[in-house]
Structure formats: structure tokens, C-alpha cells
Amino acid sequence: MKIELKVKLFLLKKIYLIYDDFVSSLAVACKKYCSRCFTNNVIMTSLEGYFIAESIVKKEHSDVFERVKAEVSKQRFLPRTTINKIAELCINGEDLPQEDHTHAESVCPLLTDDACAIYNVRPFGCRCLMSKHDCRQQGYAYVDAFVLSVNHLFLQFIEHVDANGFSGNLSDMLTFMASEENRCSYKTDTLKNSDTHLLWNLPIKVLMIPPEHRVRIQPILNALHNINGPVSKMNCSF
Known about the structure:
- The structure is a single chain.
- The chain contains ten helices and five strands.
- By secondary structure, it is mainly alpha-helical.
- The chain has one domain (5-230).
- It has a three-stranded antiparallel β-sheet with strand order 1-4-5. The protein has a two-stranded antiparallel ribbon with strand order 2-3.
- The longest helix has 19 residues, at 5-23.
- It starts with a helix and ends in a 13-residue tail after the last helix.
- The mean pLDDT is 86.
């Protein structure tokens, strides 16, 4: 299923708004200038990368690209599969690829004075980083199991919308999208080869929602299906 870029961006913004509405009902400790979780190991889709890159270009913040490019020479988390591929492997009873977690924890290159330089267009991987207690005091974040299920649902939908695109580390994706040629190829849906560290996305075949969360999550799923466009026509199940 091919979707025009303007429709993809419309859907992405709608998905973000639905998630923002969900988060507004949660009791979280996260607040502005609390930047302990700002890491370079965030994963994003090419749709989100394009959205962010265009914002950086429009605001003439080329220094942001330079900071991001400096990160690709450092050790970082490089995913070996996407969330929709994980769901497909699980439903087929296949083994999941072993992820390499020996990467170093580095501060996000988009962090400026303990605040996000692209906050309004930040990817979902950043939006869903939250904790019920102050992780600066506890040393770790605590996320409710249901919230994790909701996060997985949104990650699957965003990948589905960008099914002809790819996913990867924030630094790799933004370095790739810093190229005007790559952005143009993505925009015209003529991108044939991605960076070696970027993984091709897949549409949703099955949702990763555990049985105990299916009733409670249904209103959120309905809201996602009620978005006008290809998402509402999607055929998938738990």
C-alpha cells in the first residue's frame, strides 16, 4: 500500500495527537529540563526523520545536523528488526534476532541546555519515554505495563503508515535525511536503497497487545482506526 507523503504526514500528526490525549490522563514525573532519559539510542521511522529534517531545514538550524552527524561515528544501539517484524515472528512462533545491547549510553545530540531542540516535532520514540517517578532520584524509569502496551500499539501504527520506508537509530536516520537528495527520493517514493544501518518497515499483520489489556486499549485502537485515511482501512487483529 503506497501512501502520498502529505497523507503520511497528516496521519503521523493525528497519531501524535491521539497519543498526547492519552498521556494527558497519566500521572508522570517527567517535566521540562528533566533530561536524564535524553539518549542517542532512540529509534525512529523515515517518515519521522523526514518530518524532523524538513523542520530543521525550514528553521535553518544546520548546526543540528552537524551535531547528529558527529554521533554516527560513536557506538550506539543499532536495531536488528522492527516492531512489526517482531510481531510477525512471534505470531509465527519463530525466534527473535538477538539485539546487541553492548552499546554505550550517550546524551542525545538534539539536547540543548537540558531541553530538546526539536521538541514539537520529536519522534514517537522520545514521546513515549516517561516515568511514574523521578528517574533522576531513583536511577531508573518506571512505566506501567498497560502504558507499554499502548506504546507498542502506536509504534506499530507509525511503522504501518511508513511501510514503504525504514527505521533506525535517530542519528543514522537524521544523517540520512540531512541529504536533500535522500529527502527528495523519499518524498517521491523513489528511494531504492537505504543506509546499511536502516531497516525496511513492514505493514501490521498482528497487534502486540496482551489479552489482559485488550478491553482497556480498545478505545485507543478505535481512535486510531477512526482517523480518515489508509489507517482506518487497515485489516489487522490481536
